[in-house]
Amino acid sequence: MKKAFPFFAFIGLMLAFAACSKKDDVAPAIDSATQIAGTYVMNNFRYDSASVSVYNYTLPVSSGSNTLSGTIVARRDSASVVYTTYTLKLTGYPDDNETIGQLKLQGTAAPYDLYYGTTKVGTADGSNFTIDFSYTDGGITYRQVISGKKQ
Questions:
Q1: What are the structural domains, with CATH classification, of the chain?
Q2: Where is the secretion signal located (predicted)?
């Protein structure tokens, strides 16, 4: 019996290690803002006035020695909020930095809807980010669309 005890103790120890295998561990869930946060290379910039397209650029776009490009940056503020800015760059001119502000992410899985207050202004899925919002000023409705792909 004395010779059998170390054998059975060894088998018991191996079973205990096998029961604690890492392959059974569940990875912690990643919140929506962490999935969305990052820098997106802008691929479209559009502006309409009174349902007339003022400009609609597929970025980057070049004319002669000038190139127009841009980025969208979404910074995680909380588990369901990203603070969003965008930058337009035109060769030879100062960068145009604009703040969109805090956007609330709604939905249980990507793609998430983006809300500014109670107004839906876009969608994001962690690879693509699109802002599409309209506003009225002086009786004229304006629409701006900005989209990008994550770097």
A1: 31-150 (2.40.128)
A2: 1-18
Whether 88 and 110 have beta carbons less than 8 Å apart is answered as: no
Do the beta carbons of residue 131 and residue 70 sit within 8 Å?
no
What the block records as the tokens of 77 is 């503020």
Q: Which amino acid is at 98?
A: E
What does the alpha-carbon distance between residue 60 and residue 66 come to, in Å, rounded to a whole number?
Answer: 10
SS percent in the chain: helix, strand, coil, step 5? 15, 60, 25
